[in-house]
Amino acid sequence: MKEWWLQLGLLGVPLLAVYLHLPPPQLSPALRSWKSSGSFFTYKDLSVFYRDSSGAVGSSDVVVLLHGFPTSSYDWSKIWEGLTQRFHRVIALDFLGFGFSDKPRPHGYSIFEQASIVEGLLRHLGLRHRRVNLLSHDYGDTVAQELLH
Description:
This protein is α/β, with parallel strands linked by helices and 149 residues long.
C-alpha cells in the first residue's frame, strides 16, 4: 500500500505526456469566420488580435469593446451587427493571453499592460486623439477603469 503514489505516478506521467502532445481542437465555423474577419497588430513583439468594422453611415461614434475573463472578443459576436447599426466603427480586441492573441509564458500579465495594449491599438488605428466609447464587462471593466484614469 505504500507504493500507491508510485503506481499513480507511473500511470499519470504517460497520460500527462499524451495530453501535452494533443493538438488543439479545430475551430468551429463561427470562430473561423470571426478570426478571418479580424487582423493582428504588434505590441512589443507580441501579436494582438482585433476586429474593426465600419458601421452606421452618418455617425462618427466609435465604440471599443473590452471582453471579460476568461473569454475573448468573441463575447461580442451576437451583438456585433446591432452595434454596427449604431456606431460608425466597432472595435474589439483579444487581450494578451486570451483568444487569438499571443499567450507568452512566462509573462507578468497586468491590467496596466492590457490598458496600454488598448491604447496601442487606438494609436495603430489612428484613433489616439479621437473620443471613443467604451463598452466592457467583467475583466474588461477593470481595464476600462484604468483607461479612464
